[in-house]
Specification:
By secondary structure, the protein is mainly β. It has a single domain, classed as Lipid/polyisoprenoid-binding, YceI-like (Lipocalin), CATH 2.40.128. 4% of the residues lie in helices and 52% in strands. Pfam families: YceI.
């Protein structure tokens, strides 16, 4: 038997940013560009019924890292994220529902629906979430692991900058694939993160 959501103790779980990661990919010409947002935080609040749980996260937009300082500065500009005017992206969960069994055996999967706000534009997003279990860490705290994936349209958030080439082709795709690897610590404990 794999991990079950019922294994999660009700309460507030704080996202550990040192052991978590937010990544994205976007089509660029004939390849894919990958990036991360390393400066983020948030929490998961587990209800008595795990399907009554909630989550909230804040991501500092200026922390974007695509392994190119020049590109990162352009993405921070008004052509894309306008980080001086809109420094934070937020996600607030609005619902959790069971999804199909995971491809790696019996990993529990859930749909996590929520509102994502970028540049003062809020749109609903659905993340496919896998729960990887809960257990003690070396410092006596309780940790839980999750993976979440989804896609969003950057144009849906008013991020429309592009460069046309070769007739009807453009430099950047519209769809952004996002992936989160989250480790959370039960907040009632004195966590070393």
């Amino acid at each position: 038997m794999g991990a079950e959501a019922s294994d999660l103790e009700p309460g507030r779980w704080t996202i550990d940013p040192v052991h978590s990661e937010i990544t994205f990919t976007i089509r660029h010409l004939m390849t894919t560009v990958r990036g991360t947002f390393p400066d983020f935080g948030g929490e998961v609040v587990i209800g008595g019924d795990p399907l009554d749980s909630s989550a909230r996260a804040e991501i500092r937009m200026a922390s974007i890292d695509t392994r190119s300082a020049e590109r990162d500065e352009h993405i921070r500009s008004s052509d894309f994220l306008e980080v001086k005017k809109h420094p934070v992206m937020t996600f607030t969960a609005t619902g959790v529902a069971p999804a199909a069994i995971g491809r790696r055996g019996r990993t529990p999967r859930y749909h996590l629906d929520g509102d994502l706000t970028i540049k003062d534009v809020t749109r609903p997003v659905r993340l496919l979430t896998e729960f990887h279990g809960v257990g003690p860490d070396p410092w006596g705290c309780t940790r839980a692991g999750f993976t979440a994936t989804g896609t969003l349209s950057r144009r849906g958030f008013g991020i429309e900058f592009n460069i046309p080439f070769q007739g009807d082709k453009v430099m950047l795709g519209d769809e952004i694939a996002i992936a989160l690897e989250i480790q959370a610590v039960l907040a009632s404990e004195d966590a070393r993160i």
